Amino acid sequence: MKSLNRRRFLGRTAAAGLAALPVTRGLTAESTAGDPSSVSAGPSYAPDRSNDDPLGVRASFPVTEELAYLNTASVGPLPVPVRDALHAYADEKMHRRNTSVGREAIASARTRFSRLFGADEEELAFLYATSGAENIIVSAMDWRAGDNVVVDELHFVTTFVLYRELERKAGIELRSIPSKGGAVTLDDFAAHTDQRTRLISVAWVSNRNGFRYDLPALADLAHAHGAYLYADAIQAWGTFPTNLHAEKVDFACGNGYKWLHGDFGCAPFYVRREHLEWMTADRYGHRQVAETLPGHRFRLKTSAEKLEYANPAYGPVAAMDAALGFLEGVGLDRIASHTHALASELRAGAEALGMRMFTPPDNPSAIVSFYHGLDPERLGPALAEAGVAITFQEEGDLLRAAVGMFNNRSDVDRLLGVLAGLV
Ligand SMILES: Cc1ncc(COP(=O)(O)O)c(C=O)c1O
Fold first, then answer.
1. Same structural domain for residues 170 and 280?
2. Which of 157, 158, 201, 264 for a ligand 1 pocket mutation test, highest count of atoms within 8 Å of Cβ?
3. What is the maximal distance between C-alpha atoms in the chain?
4. Ligand 1 pocket: which of 126, 201, 209, 232 to mutate (most atoms <8 Å of CB)?
5. Which CATH number characterizes residue 364's domain?
6. Is there an atom of ligand 1 within 6 Å of 234 CB?
7. Contact 160, 202 (CB under 8 A)
8. pLDDT per residue as tens digits for the range 150-177
């Protein structure tokens, strides 16, 4: 069965020119996700000869010249305009000609983010990391022993670390729902939610297999029990059009270094307006001051900006601002239709090779995870040799492919060609 599939696959892809694969390195492992050093450029320069560029963005992503980069779920490569913005920031820091550049960048990023994702500017704070948001929410809430938080096993590790600590410190209960067929249904959440549930927390698009949650339905469920819904948006923002008000979510946060194509260190945090009054900061500092009163007394800001207690990392903020401008120019609707369609093709190709999917069918996201059933010791070097950048998970048994706006069929074929060669 497997060899038949392999022959069929090779027959189908021969015309795509798989014989002339550029030789570069690019393999990354899940343990290095989030680490800039995990993105390895190849030693030899081998331009991609394919003209297939549905969104007209490949020239803005030099990474496409060297790698079949299917790893934006780990770290999104910088497009040229974002690199240029970082360059301009560094130049300003060197010459000190326009000292307001940082303040201008954060104001512009706030406006752009609100416009692109359907939030009000007052509902936005820029944090250092995604993981910071859930910590702020938890520290602002008043917990009693016996309260519970409902999550599921497709969530990111930060969430489990945080609530295990809260179990220990405050006597709450962490309820984690197992996934079935790579999905967790609304009924599963309903079965675990009760009057002592204070928070439902999901990775809006799962980092493990790209499963995408129905936020409005989960928000209705949470609100019917007097609870809140938090969405970790790092694998969601930048991959499809959305409006945070219409999503009904109470809080959402996602760092800039993946699908927004910005840098580490700038994570927009959305706090729904109705929660701003009780949402207190978990630390205090000079940037929260709205008005200085006599005797070292202060009136503090009341918008979500009150969560920005000190100077932000202006470099990553400048990158965020440029990245949002770039995304706006490309269009989230175009990004979603291209990447979701290409992810479906990748899925079909891997299924045709007999690989078992971890991502459920008809899932509207750009991530596809599957059990390759091959020897990871052979597969890893083969992918690296072919210049395919991708993430191995679960001791190397699972491959997570992430299709970015700049990817094309030849990138997908390069991955499938390597797999077919080993089946
Ligand atoms: C779903 C998810 N949340 C959070 C993170 C980590 O984000 P941060 O370092 O900004 O906290 C990752 C990184 O891989 C992730 O995939």
1. yes
2. 158
3. 81
4. 232
5. 3.90.1150.10
6. yes
7. no
8. 999 999 999 999 999 999 999 999 999 9
Is residue 136 within 8 Å of 253, Cβ to Cβ? Answer: no
Claim to verify: residue 306 and residue 409 sit in the same structural domain: no
Kind of pairing between the strands at 391-393 and 398-402: antiparallel
Pocket lining: 360 vs ligand 1, CB cutoff 6 Å: no
Note the pLDDT tens digit of each residue in 291-328: 999 999 999 999 999 999 999 999 999 999 999 999 99
Of 298, 329, 360, which residue is a domain's last?
329
**pLDDT tier at 99, thresholds 50, 70, 90:** confident
Domain span holding position 390: 2-78+331-422
Residue type for 259, please? W
Angle in degrees, CA 399, 401, 402, rounded to 5: 150
Domain count, the chain: 2
Whether 151 contacts 159, CB under 8 Å: yes
Q: What would the pLDDT profile of 397-416 be if each residue is shown by its tens digit?
A: 999 999 999 999 999 999 99
130 lines ligand 1 (CB under 6 A): yes
> Which residues, 6+ apart, have CB-to-CB distance to 28 below 8 Å?
38, 39, 40, 71, 74, 389, 390, 391
Question: What average pLDDT does the chain have?
Answer: 90
The ligand 1 atom nearest the CA atom of 33? 14
Reported as a single tens digit per residue, the pLDDT across 136-149 is: 999 999 999 999 99
Do 39 and 91 lie in one domain? The reply is no
**Global pTM value:** 0.89
